[in-house]
């Protein structure tokens, strides 16, 4: 029987803005995809088998 080993992390990106400043996305979809690729690469280097990295954008 197989088992799943997993590690979960949470990353929050924030900025301090004036009250009258419009809300904006701090990380584009492209940057999020790049972060996923970097995490996949780093995790793959330390794992004997393949790894699956899932990035979920909180709303």
Task: Pick out its properties.
59 residues; mainly alpha; 1 helix; 29% helix
Protein described:
With 59 residues, the protein is an all-alpha fold. Helices cover 29% and strands 0% of the residues. The chain is built from one helix and no strands. It has one helix at 29-45. The longest helix is centred in the middle third of the chain and has 17 residues, at 29-45. 0% of the residues are buried. The model has no long low-confidence stretch (mean pLDDT 92).
Largest sheet: none
Structural class: mainly alpha
SS elements, strand count: 0
Tell me the helix content: 25-40%
Quick overview:
This protein is an all-alpha fold and 59 residues long.
List the helices and strands and how they pair.
Blueprint: H1 29-45
């Amino acid at each position: 029987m197989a088992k799943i080993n997993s590690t979960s992390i949470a990353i929050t990106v924030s900025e301090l803005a004036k009250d009258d400043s419009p809300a904006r996305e701090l990380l584009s979809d492209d940057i999020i995809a790049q972060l996923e690729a970097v995490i996949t690469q780093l995790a793959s280097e330390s794992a004997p088998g393949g790894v699956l990295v899932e990035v979920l954008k909180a709303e």
